[in-house]
Amino acid sequence: MDQSEDLSAAADFAVWLARLRAHAGDPSLAVLARLTGAVPRGRPVPKSTLGRALQGESLPSVDDAVSIAVACVLHEGGGRERAEAVRRECRERWVRAKSAEREATLTAKAAADGEPAPSAAAVRTAAEQAFLAKYHPCVETLLDTMELFGVTLRRSDFRYRMSTSYISLTVQGEGSAQRVQEAIHAAKRVLIRGDAGSGKTTLLKWLAVGAIRGDLPEPMGRWNGATPFFLPLRHFAERPLPAPEDFLTYAARTLADVAPDGFVRDALDSAHSLVLIDGVDELPASRRDEVRDWLRELTSGYPDCRYVVTSRQAAVTERWLAPMGFASFELAPMGPSDQNQFIEHWHTTMRSTAEDAEERARLTTYEHALVRSLSERRELRRLGGNPLLCALLCALHWDRDMQLPDDRVKVYDAALEMLLVRRDQQRNIAVEGPRLRSGVQEMLLRRLAYWMIRNDLTEISFAQLTGRVAAYLADSAQYPEESAAVARQLLERSGLLRAPAHDSVDFVHRTFQEYLAADQLLNDGDLALLIKHAHEDQWQDVVVMVSGRARDSERDHLIKSLLKRARRDKAHRLRLTVLAVDCVGDGTAIDPRVVDEARRRAAELIPPQNPAQAAALANLGEVVLDQMPGPRPELAPGVVRAILETCRLVGGPSAMRLLARFAAVPDLETERRLVGMWPDFDTAEFAHVVLSELSWLGPLTVGPHELPHLHRLTGVTDLTVDGAADSYAVVRRLRNLRSLRLVDPEPGLSGLELPPALLVLSLDGSVRHDRFPVPTAPGVQELWFDDCACPDCGLSAWRMAGLWPAEARRAVWLLSVRAAPATLDPRLLAERFPGLSVLAVRSDMVFGVGEVADYLKRLRECFPALTEFRLYSHGDDGLDQQLQEAGFLHWTHTMEAAPGTRTTHVFTRTGAG
Asked: Counting Cβ atoms within 10 Å, is residue 282 exposed (0-12), middle (13-18) or buried (19+)?
């Protein structure tokens, strides 16, 4: 397919949209943009995106396309059936248009590489396109949802859309902590490890839904449009691991029989597929080698696909898949800002289910109170770093009138009581079959959970559930003849079981299974069995849960037995010691002799070697910091990271004093980690004691809350302020500041004065023209403007800077703006910035080679001082290739591209103007 055919695909889609618009009475772009915000299951679409879609300049994302189409139906007054019919037709047309675009991209790439046109396996047939039009919505419906604890408790029919409120997680790799999209975008193969409830499954769902809709954020643009295959390994616990032809059995079981022959293998061959494998830890340890062999076969047979695999940390090491080229990352706890965002999402969703204005107002009050509690109570903040526990805290805070437990086991105690004791009683729900007392429900769930743990199961069939229930009821003389009805009641009413797929039952989260299993284990007196299996990863959280629920004598016995076994079992000594220390931290009223022995054994873990050891040591409190070494050249980077993490988890003045010793030694990685810990400590004290010791080798990003404390950090050279601040006056006190970036600032920029040493000014957000910053000295040399304009008059940022004094304007040698080249008059630029030698343009508009050539000609004629023009494209392989092949008079063209990012076209001037 040539370029004209590629354009006709987008144009054909635009023609269809235009017909819908005409049928609706030809509403204006402003009216349509407003209506898109009212589309059920849709989202607001900007006028600029509307214009490009209706003119055929570019194909919108599938969500934008559906919102535009249904908005037309709303304007014409069409009913629900008409809207749903248009929604289905829009998706089908969009898939065909997207496939045509993709075919053009593959063909152009092959031509550029001197290869033959792509095979039939790479270019989807009409049958495959038709199947994708059904497959994508099926996957979206299944995966674009999540359990929001407390909201689904109130309304079991409520569908919480994961994609609308997803919070980007932070991961830790070999370098510094990054947002997940920044960390994994360039990798083809990724292993994500994390604790229970840390968001591993939600991350995979977000990747799948985003790839289908084409709205994964930069720098993950090249993941968009990939065909996702979501494979939860628990689904295969009692069956062979899936061959490619079985990939549809979970996410699209009803479509598996109608898929075109070889569809999955062809999709994998096309190198534009995303294989998402969830929960290595949810298969028995005896099958881990089988999983690795299966992955080796997959990655060898289909080497160009993207693979993301998740597991709990205890199940596999970070190097487990390294020989196959997998990059490994660990999910980090949510920081305070992410916790606040999560709490806001939870309460916003609850408000959407509220019955009256009074309840909505009360939810807002509770939201603010919970945010305040987490900021004031360190133990709650530690719990809230885990997404699952954060949701539990939200639900319990609401249910218990703002009274919260202060440790993990108590949180689960309260959650279970809320689910099993008061849920149906308070709502007077009628149930089929016998009404079970809460104690009977809990007994059944405890025994089921323990049986599943003992048998390495995380998912069972409904027949297995019924069979276990029948046996347990017979033992207790409770309704054995109604086991099927009771099993159904547990599944539908307990709030702890769910049916994730046809004939599959599991606990809503594995942590609930471990909590209930721990309770039953104590009830059965099976501590000896627990100690025997304690080194196995699937039992470790059960061990800690048992410690938190056990009687004093049982806890003492458990800890002593773990330490005794650690002395005897060299192969598992480290893991058992860490577990024993962890159990000490989770309990109270422990025999002092047991505590002393645990502390002696903990000394063997100092300095800690990894995050697990750091977490275990932190449970012992400040006493471990007295034995912790300060900075020494012989400490490996991983050990330094673990020491810093121990300090973060312990908190308090002693931790800050030790962190300050590390801050005084110049090291970029340590600096980044210390800055990342700032929200976990008192803001003013941490800035004074720790951050003031840093040499500031790298950049600093702060929010409005931290900004007032920067007067203690006068050594900062590169600063980003993210968010609207009440005052920016502190900036002028940063005498060493060379680069300042303001993201979404307060438009009035109250109190801002640019420091004399400033060289780089970057603005990303609206700024009023009468408050636009002006250099106090002619030193600013680089200007970076992104989506900046005066909210009052619409004047663009570069034009506002063009009003600076002449001496300040002459000092500027680089200008980078987000704008269409046509809006940047070369004559005016040359007049305003006569010293400019580099102009960089980022445009959301689609442009062709001819437009680029014409603009270069105008630059040469009007701007004799300019030596370099940079143009950031959308990553359109076809256009990139054309620009690379074209010749431009008086300019040399080179291309810079990084995986998953926009392409930068650099035009360097040759010869005289």
From this structure: buried
Contact by Cβ (8 Å): 275, 306: yes
Q: What are the angstrom distances between the C-alpha of 404 and each of 318, 383, 763, 807? A: 35, 11, 42, 61
Q: How many of the other CB atoms lie within 10 Å of CB of 633?
A: 5
Tokens (6 digits) for 35? 């209506």
In percent, the amount of the chain with pLDDT more than 70 equals 88
Dump pLDDT digits (tens) for 178-195: 889 989 998 999 999 988
Give 851: exposed, middle or buried? Use CB within 10 Å, 0-12, 13-18, 19+: middle
Lowest mean pLDDT among 262-271, 304-313, 415-424: 415-424
Q: Tell me how far apart the alpha carbons of residues 112 and 106 are, in angstroms, rounded to a whole number.
A: 10
3-state SS, 156-189, equals CCCCCCHHHCCCCCEEECCCCEEEHHHHHCCCCE
Reference 609, options 652, 561, 641, 562; nearest CA is 641
Q: At what angle do helices 611-618 and 637-650 cross, to 10 degrees?
A: 30
Amino acid at 34: R
Query: Per-residue pLDDT averaged across 386-394, rounded?
Result: 87
User: Distance between CA 579 and CA 572 in Å, rounded?
Assistant: 11
Residue 68, pLDDT score: 93
Closest listed residue to residue 545, CA positions, set 577, 575, 573, 513? 513
Task: Evaluate the CA torsion angle 667, 673, 679, 680 in order and state its sign.
Answer: negative
Whole-angstrom Cα distance, residue 674 to residue 83? 52
Q: How confident is the model at residue 789 (pLDDT cuts 50, 70, 90)?
A: confident
Region for residue 744 given its phi and psi (left: phi exceeds 0; alpha: psi -120 to 50; beta: otherwise): left
Check if the beta carbon of residue 92 is closer than 8 Å to that of residue 215: no
Tokens found for residue 364: 């807002």
Q: Long-range contacts for 634-637 (Cβ within 8 Å, ≥24 apart)?
A: 635/607, 637/669
Tell me if 169 sits within 8 A of 199, measured CB to CB: yes
Residue 566 tokens read as: 């650690």
* Under 8 Å between Cβ of 73 and 20: yes
Average pLDDT, the chain: 84
Query: Which residue, chain included where needed, has tokens 């200008």?
Result: 815
Peptide bond into 607 cis (omega under 30): yes
Cα(36)–Cα(32) distance, rounded to whole angstroms? 6
pLDDT > 70? residue 680 = yes
- DSSP label of 116: P
Q: Which of 584, 590, 594 is nearest to 551 (CA)?
A: 590
- The beta-strand segments (E) located in 96-246 are 170-172, 177-179, 189-194, 227-232
Query: Coil, strand or helix: which one is 913?
Result: coil
Of 23-27, 420-424, 655-659, which range is least confident? 420-424
Q: From the CA atom positions of the chain, what is the Rg in Å? A: 30
- What gap in Å lies between CA 651 and CA 681, rounded to an integer? 7
Alpha-carbon gap, residue 620 to 617, rounded angstroms:
6
Question: In sequence order, which residues have a C-beta less than 8 Å from that of residue 257 and are 6 or more positions away?
Answer: none
- Contact yes or no for 219/185 (Cβ under 8 A): yes
Distance CA 731, CA 706 (A): 12
H/E element, 815: strand 814-818
Backbone φ and ψ of 243, nearest 5°: -80, 160
Q: Alpha helices, DSSP H only, in 508-606?
A: 510-524, 527-533, 537-549, 552-568, 573-586, 592-603
Alpha carbons 335 and 17: distance in angstroms, whole number = 43
- Give the single-character DSSP code of 622: G
For residue 53, what pLDDT is reported?
86
Q: What angle do CA 186, 190, 195 make, to 5 degrees?
A: 130
How many Cα atoms are found within 13 Å in the side-chain-facing hemisphere of 810?
Answer: 5
Token code pair at residue 381: 């903040």
